[in-house]
């Protein structure tokens, strides 16, 4: 039900485009897309929802269904941002986060953890090295602002 409500709200209200807001990400800046995002989520509805809504916001989005395949995809794609759930099969989000933080190739990649387990799990994720964490369900417009900020900060850092 949460997924359907989020889709309906996004279609009716539409998420903010990455080009608007504080002006930090202006269209055409360096002729680059707003960012490359990898969504790692075992729930197919949630994964598809995030991919669709972030894509509608202008991001280049790929996805993986568990931490193991997410880590392999991250090594291949080197995204600006990884959005991961915590509770997943094969490798959970915290283990994925720790592996990403140890991988030299991914030092410029931000990690945003989303969890249905509330504030304590989000706090644990940040302590483990996440750049940000949020509990489900979340306000999508606020979520997109967090994504935008993380992608912009990582790109600015990478561009030196």
Model description:
This protein is α/β, with parallel strands linked by helices and 160 residues long. The protein has a single domain (34-159), classed as Rossmann fold. It is 47% helix and 16% strand. The chain is built from six helices and five strands; from the N terminus they run αβαβαβαβαβα. It has helices spanning 2-13, 44-56, 67-77, 93-102, 119-127, 140-159, and strands at residues 36-40, 60-64, 81-85, 110-115, 132-135. It has a five-stranded parallel beta sheet with strand order 2-1-3-4-5, with helices on both faces. The protein starts with a helix and ends with a helix. Mean pLDDT is 81; it is low at 1-31.
Summarize model confidence as the mean pLDDT: 81
Beta-strand fraction estimate = 15-25%
Number of domains: 1
| Head-to-tail CA distance between termini | 43 Å
Largest sheet: 5 strands, parallel
User: What is the fold named in CATH at topology level?
Assistant: Rossmann fold
What is the overall silhouette? globular
Low-confidence stretches: 1-31
**CATH superfamily membership:** Response regulator
Task: Name a few traits of the molecule.
6 helices, Rossmann fold, single chain, alpha/beta, about 160 residues
What's a quick, concise take on this entry?
This protein has a single domain (34-159), classed as Response regulator (Rossmann fold, 3-Layer(aba) Sandwich). It is built from six helices and five strands, in the order αβαβαβαβαβα.
Write the layout of secondary structure elements.
Layout: H1 2-13, E1 36-40, H2 44-56, E2 60-64, H3 67-77, E3 81-85, H4 93-102, E4 110-115, H5 119-127, E5 132-135, H6 140-159
Parallel strand pairs: 1-2, 1-3, 3-4, 4-5
Helix pairs in contact: 1-2, 3-4
């Amino acid at each position: 039900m949460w997924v359907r409500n989020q889709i309906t709200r996004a279609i009716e209200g539409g998420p903010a485009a990455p080009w608007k807001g504080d002006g930090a990400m202006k269209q055409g800046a360096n002729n680059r897309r707003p960012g490359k995002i990898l969504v790692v989520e075992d729930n197919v509805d949630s994964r598809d929802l995030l991919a669709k809504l972030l894509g509608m916001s202008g991001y280049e989005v790929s996805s993986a269904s568990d931490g193991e395949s997410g880590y392999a995809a991250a090594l291949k794609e080197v995204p600006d941002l990884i959005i991961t759930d915590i509770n997943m099969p094969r490798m959970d989000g915290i283990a994925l986060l720790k592996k990403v933080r140890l991988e030299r190739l991914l030092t410029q990649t931000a990690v945003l953890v989303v969890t249905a387990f509330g504030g304590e799990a989000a706090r644990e994720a940040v302590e483990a090295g996440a750049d940000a964490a949020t509990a489900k369900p979340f306000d999508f417009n606020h979520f997109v602002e967090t994504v935008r900020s993380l992608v912009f900060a990582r790109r600015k850092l990478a561009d030196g």
